[in-house]
Amino acid sequence: MIRVDCKWWLALLGLCAALTAPLLVVDVPPLLDYPNHLARAFVLASLPEDTVLGAFYVPHWSVIPNLALDVLAPPLMHVLPVHVVGRLTIALAMLLPVLGTVAYNTALGGRWWGFGVGAIAYHYCLLLGFLNFSLALGVAILLAAAWVRWREARPALAIGLAIAGAPVLFLCHLMGLVCFGLLIGGAELCAVVRQPRGIVRRGLVLAAVFATPAGLYAMSALAPLGGDAEFLPIGTKLAQLATVFTAYSWTLDMATAAVAFGVPAVGVWRGWGRVPGPAAYAAGLVVAVFAAAPFAWKGTYLLDTRFAVLLAFMLFACFVPRRLPRLAIAAIVLVVAARTILLTAVWVDHRSDLAALRQAMQPVQPGQAVYVAQAGQQERPVYWAANPHWRALSDGTRTDEHWAALLPIERRAFWPFQFDMPSQQPIETREPYRTLAGKVGHVPTWTEAAAANVCGFDWVLLLEADASPDLPPARFRPEVRSGFAVLYRIEACAPE
Fold first, then answer.
1. Cα 180–266–94 angle (5° rounding)?
2. Closest CA to 484 of 365, 350, 392, 369
3. If DSSP codes are grouped into helix, strand and coil, which group holds residue 370?
4. Cβ(32)–Cβ(407) under 8 Å?
5. pTM for this one?
6. CA 346, CA 13: separation in Å to the nearest integer?
7. Surface-to-core class of residue 93, CB atoms within 10 Å of its CB (0-12 exposed, 13-18 middle, 19+ buried)
8. d(CA 40, CA 419)
9. Closest by alpha carbon to 312, among 246, 232, 397, 231?
10. Closest CA to 66 of 428, 425, 421, 429
11. Which of 182, 186, 248, 311 is the one with CA 20 to 30 A from 104?
């Protein structure tokens, strides 16, 4: 048994402190979907007392496998400021997979290599704002670590934790439950290969673990949902194995991927360490499911990407080194430090856009409706040329699409893009605002906004407006111009 001493615990505490430092520099971190999720949690926390927001939305609770943030955040918002709660949930979503990876690695007999997971603490899906998935992934890896450590030595404890944790994972996010199934399924498969006579007993145990989530899924709105699966071309799918390391510098991202894949691969080849059987079988299952998984299905996108994220964490969870060259240790330390420093610097720069947005929103009053548009991708490079680096990840993915979700949070106003799918969110948009949102559809560009029928809205908020011309002055009068954002008063709602 590995002795975990004070030095090890201090190092883990230091890693967690360093990784949470970026959350101290800005109150609304630029994670793509995050402001939208935060707005929904704020609305749920405000209802039914807030009659202004209650005119826009009504809670719609049901069996939904995507509820982590909706359950955690609203109660906390009754005692803490909304943006403090938001950053606490981000910290939890970031740290749980890190702690789970370290726990899994130590359960296999590892010691220090698991700390390298700090390199992917802010992984691609987290930067896209997939907080429920990240929270569930962390819980899944922690439960899998308990399974690996205690399944043979204390089976009642391991099985009890799994049976209790599986429905929690289902309600947090369905993909977390699937990841948990792959991790413990790999461990059980390894045991069955070694002792085939235990296959029935172990199969019954797994059936008991997943019986309750299976029943919950059958009751959920997701189960009967249709939709054809969408698959990526093989080259694009394989590229996702590197894409999950995406942050703000392509060079640094690829260097991180090279270190994360290279050290375990070379380590096994050169005999620096090993991948124990339970982890090897689990990794094999993850690779197989990643290869077979669709990109989109039942209204959810980047499904296969999430298995690539799990595989990235397994690079640090599954490899147990006997020794590592100083060069490999230095490489992972430098990667963790460089990514954290760069992320912090980008988020500091992001504050200027956030201040500009808040300045533009000042005239908006509670109960008003705001049509939100972006100068946008379709007008590249004309309007995008002036956009600074912190508005996009290194693969070009913009992270500012949902920043206007601050309207319901800070101005108690309606915006038309609140996530409210019955199979994924416990909130419903009331009429006539539901029809109003449906009329807008996707986030419009400058060209679409200039010709849009905006009847029913009180304002037009144009984002990424640094280099864009004004909307047609006959219909839209600039009220506040703040660089990143311009707020227009509507003079004529319908085009002539």
1. 35
2. 350
3. strand
4. no
5. 0.95
6. 24
7. buried
8. 8
9. 246
10. 425
11. 248
